[in-house]
């Protein structure tokens, strides 16, 4: 037994492995990216976590989603409140699922192994770290490139005419060049990992307050006061029960975080303590979404009132501004927030997961490069050809990853009681030990995941079950959580 009181240090229930223990695990065939973080490498405190997610909220897809929320039947004020309630739900999910990482210093790949087993972890890891992360990485790059295209066009109008009728699988030459350039920047940020990201967010977050605060002030002025925004009546709104709309908004916001929430251990493994990640993440998400709730609704409605249109694309509103400096600053910050979102939620987890799936051939940086290339080849602009695409994508991602989250939470808190045997988890790959609980496949976990997944995505195939699709993450996570617990308890009692 490698882990004992002589080699480990505990603080408030957190376990800090020693250099000697980490070295033993490395000799068993694990690369540096997979090892539990030693105390000297746990360098993220409350401030770091507070800034970590701030830039992940203000991006073009999120503003587009708010435009859709306003048509669901709630008043503008209730939409704001629903977004803040959603932030509480997201913060709870991130903190609770991040506990395994902050307690033991393990990355998502090993957290997943502790739940599903070594072999069993490959499928949910592939779904989160490869499918969801790469698809989202491509989509975020494309939406960011649209902002970049507007920005370049302000300085060089002729750029928008380059290539004439040229089309590369549905995208013109200006759009292709903007996408390629923005894609390359995101990949390079991904190479730098968490250290570069911390420096990046330290610069970005003050700008968020300045720019989106300024845009909100402008929107309130443009609308003739906050009262006109809060009492604005949209045309073409749906008629839905208020409680259902609240649940739909909560589900949609959590679905945005379904992937980073599942793999949050990749970030909480660096926590100086669980207390730090708990306070930092909660404050980060609450403050970020409070600002976002007020600014997004105000900017979209204020811009619509001012220009006498019903415009729900924030880029189109910015593009109408007369002040060139204001346009440039707003677009640059939107580009930076998209980069922050892409790094924290997509390319960094994809790099780690590829490294976990192929530890002997792929390290983190190679994983980032491979994920980046695939995200380009899938041509994400084809996935954004109509306005409903991103919402359908969110429902699918929520339906796929909700069950994984449900099983992870039930296993860590109800079955393992927050206890993971690191010595058994980091078993010697060259030795056979059928009694090791972390080898093979956790069958109950697979059954719960697959059953819940089929139910949560059923609305995509059967129109009569559309309400399930609208609540895909909540239904998938809740069903998997309960089913897994019942199956495990039933097996223990047999």
In terms of quaternary structure, the protein is: single chain
What is the terminal separation in angstroms?
Answer: 30 Å
Radius of gyration: 23 Å
Give the spatial strand order of the biggest sheet.
1-2
Strand content of the residues, in percent?
under 5%
Task: Give your account of this protein's structure.
The chain has 21 helices and 2 strands. With 494 residues, it is an all-alpha fold. It has helices at residues 19-27, 46-52, 60-69, 76-97, 99-104, 108-116, 122-155, 173-223, 226-230, 242-256, 258-262, 265-268, 274-306, 314-319, 324-357, 364-377, 389-415, 422-425, 443-456, 466-470, 472-493; strands at 9-11, 14-16. α4 (76-97) packs across α10, α6 (108-116) crosses α17 and α17 packs antiparallel against α19 (443-456). The model is unreliable at 1-11 (pLDDT under 50).
Task: Considering the chains and any ligands shown, give keywords for the structure.
single chain; 494 residues; mainly alpha; 21 helices; 68% helix; globular; disordered N terminus
Structure summary:
With 494 residues, the chain is mainly α. Helices cover 68% and strands 1% of the residues.
Topology, please?
Elements: E1 9-11, E2 14-16, H1 19-27, H2 46-52, H3 60-69, H4 76-97, H5 99-104, H6 108-116, H7 122-155, H8 173-223, H9 226-230, H10 242-256, H11 258-262, H12 265-268, H13 274-306, H14 314-319, H15 324-357, H16 364-377, H17 389-415, H18 422-425, H19 443-456, H20 466-470, H21 472-493
Helix pairs in contact: 2-13, 4-10, 4-13, 6-17, 7-8, 7-15, 7-16, 7-17, 8-13, 8-15, 8-16, 10-17, 15-16, 17-19, 17-21, 19-21
